[in-house]
Amino acid sequence: MKKTGLLLLLVAASAIAQDTNLASNGTPADASAPQGTSPTSVSFPVERVQTPTYADLYCAGFINKQILPNANYVTGGLQTPNTTKFVTGDIVYLTGSSYTLGGQYTILRELLDQNRYEVFPGQKKALAEAGQPYGEIGRVRVVDTRSKGAIAQIEYSCDPINPGDIAVPFAEKPAVSFHPPLRFDRFVPPTNGKLSGRIVLGKDFDSVLGTGMKVYVNVGSNQGVKIGDYFRAVRSYGADLKDPVDSLSFYASTAEDTQKRPPAIEGNWMTKTKGPNIHVSDLPRRAVGEIVIIGVTPTTATGMIVFSMEDVHAGDGVELDEQAQ
Known about the structure:
Number of helices: 5
Oligomer: single chain
Order of helices and strands: HHHEEEEHEEEEEEEHEEEEEE
Number of strands: 17
Radius of gyration: 26 Å
Strand content: 25-35%
Largest sheet: 7 strands, antiparallel
Shape: elongated
């Protein structure tokens, strides 16, 4: 009887050990970690992706290399001039031509960044090369074409619609497919030939971004990017060294009083020390988040952050996450 109980205990212990060696997605942990890595939750946490909503898809905005036609635009609304901002259900007036009764139109806004500084070195040049940022403000349906221009009702508004906002024909957006939970490699090394780019701007000109927020990257359909692709956002410690705020930490003392040979980190080498000089370029780069592409133009793409381990920054690099495709 004692032998039987001991055998059952050994079987149960073996089953627990096998469960421990499984990744959260049900695959063997050893199989989910590349050679030279340890399958721990520190370097391979499991992604819990956030699914884009209708608002995420239709209010994301984009950057376009070419300036879009602006002959059709909003001139006012039912309560003009007392009201200058219009939302879902309101009546607005459209000027221009080629409007059709019952036709749907997307309302866009040419955007101007009011910030007078660069979020990362070279941002102004990168944005000029990428194109003109546009905000997707809402959707209207034409209800009357008897007057000069058209009368439309707002069916959906992302933000209040203003006179001067552009009207372009509405187009349905394709659904985005999602991968099951996967291991997120925080320290994946760069690979030559992998499709890569950079976050040149955040929606609403935000520079520090998190899960659910939208970003614009400087690669598009000309480079093979398509809706539903996943990109990993990555950052080197050299980028932190160039940041006017984050770099301040590099200039602070890192020594402990009891260290005989305290080190000096790059950026603070003016400090006299007998210890080693630490180069930030020798530190591994880190992956900070996962981005799904929800819109593309020939030269740019709009992405939504669906998983993040820390803040994602404008200026971070992005590279195609092949395991998620």
